[in-house]
Structures are given as structure tokens and as C-alpha cells.
Amino acid sequence: MFRNIVVPLDVSTFGEQALPMALELARKSGATLHLTHVLLPLGAVFADTPPFVNPSLEAQLRERQQSAQQTYLSATATRLREAEAPAVKTVLLDGDIPEMIRHEVESVGADLVVMSTHGHGPFTRFWLGSVADALMRSLPVPLLLVRPTEEAPELTVPPPLHRLLLPLDGSPLSEKIVEPAARLAELMGAEVTLLRLIRPLQPPPAAVAGQTFGHMMDGLIAQTETLQEKVRQEAREYLRGVAAPLEKRGLAVRTLVEADESPSRAILRHTNDTDVVALATHGYGGLTRLFMGSVADKVIRGAHIPVLVCRPKA
Fold this sequence. Notes:
Blueprint: E1 4-8, H1 19-29, E2 32-39, H2 42-45, H3 55-82, E3 87-94, H4 97-108, E4 112-116, H5 127-136, E5 143-146, E6 163-168, H6 178-188, E7 191-198, H7 213-248, E8 253-259, H8 263-270, E9 276-280, H9 294-302, E10 307-310
Parallel strand pairs: 1-2, 1-4, 2-3, 4-5, 6-7, 6-9, 7-8, 9-10
Antiparallel strand pairs: 5-10
């Protein structure tokens, strides 16, 4: 289960969209929530700040900024405690934002980070493509990204987490997400769908002497279908092997094999009937670099549901 959950905030309603999910996980596991904010440069906070200020004025502005952000964190912590969060701590940091968040994760021994995929604070799309992207590729613990909405977060309504989609490419590295996903599913009592993605096979264009074009194509199509079914069967057997230990832990598990030229498209298609998707940020199985960069990024940017990501160690 989770013991310490770090929640980075950018002091915006969009950044707070992660709070309901973090709160629900803390309630279920008894974890401590660590609300974390990293101070922005003065020029990003005070638009009318001159490019050069004397040290005294700069110190006053910095003190004003720190006081405002600490007040915000304290008020947010109070809201969470009133919503029955087991324990809430706050920390205000200064420095490089991804680096400071990683430092906080290591300092408190966090086993999960929950944050919004972006916020609309002083920097447009501040978290998306910047902090979230950097953390996704460097955090030593799983990262749960929540898609923000225009509405203010509602702490009294638990977010749905009854179905978890777990795409795999058949590689050991991609399987590193299985344990974090299983822990989340166990905590929430969620059903797990294991999705094995394979490439659709096409008949090769080849002429065969002494055969008509129709006979040749019929033969190639039959051979391709036979080979595709063999690949599917191997994928089914692979998923059964992954599912068995999860079922022994009491989890409800479904398996699904799907052929698609676009892994991200296949994953996103299945997010319409699930509550969270979990995937490794890279893998080197049947599809080269299946979950590195492009697929993970497309899923995170395209999914309307939370995405749990984990960077496997090679």
C-alpha cells in the first residue's frame, strides 16, 4: 500500500485537480499527503517587477511571495483534513522544479506522486511538457497524472477507479508497471484488463510461378491469417502468465489481445470504458520503443482519464 504521497501544486485550480484522487488514495491506504510547491522566479509572479531591483526590494518581494504560497498550502491542507485525509504535510521549496520535487520524493520516502498533467498558472501549460514530462522520465516512483477540467475539484466526491487498463508489449521492461498497477487495483478494488498489443500482419506481395493471381492471393492470405492467429495465441498465453499471479492476489483480471498499427490509438480507444490506464514509459519488446516517448506521450495527452506511469530501470 501507499505510505507517503507527494502532490505537487502550482497554486491554480487546474493544479488542484489531482487532490480528489490523492485524497481518495490516502483515505484507502492511510498515507500521508505531502503538498509540495516550488517557488517560481520573481519575474513570473510579479509582472511589473523591473529587470534589476535592489537587494532590499527583491527580499521584500520574495518574502511576500513565500508568505502567499505558504498561506495557500496551509489552506489547502486544512481543506484536505476537513475531508478526512489521514495526515497532511506542506513544504515550500525553491530551485529547479523537477529537481526539487524529486528531492522531496526521496526525502519523505514517497512511493507515489499524484499531480495534474498541466496547470494554467503564471506559466501557460506550466506542468504539461515541462515538469510532468521531466518527472515522468526521471522519478524513481510511479507517477499518477490526472487530466484537469474547468470545474473546481470536489473533495467530497471520490473519483471512480473501478477498472484499470494495463497495456503491455511483451517485454520485461514494460512489465515493470504491473506491480504498481496491481497495488493501485488492490487498494481500490478495481478490475484489471491486460491489453497485449500486436502488429497486424499483411500478405507479402510475391509472385508464384504456375499460379493464377487469384490462387496466389488466396494462398498468401491464408498463410498470413494462420501466422496472425499463431501470434495471437502466443499473446494470449503470455497474458495468462501475467494474469495468474494477479488472480492469486484476489484481483479480477480480463485479458485482451488486439492488433493495431498504432499502439496509442488502440490504448486510447479502450480508455472510453475504463477509469485509469497504467503503462511503462518505455519498453523494448515486439514493437521497438513501444512505450517510450511517442506512445506514452500520446496516451497522456489524449486520455481523459488518469494515467499511471512508471520509468523502469534497465
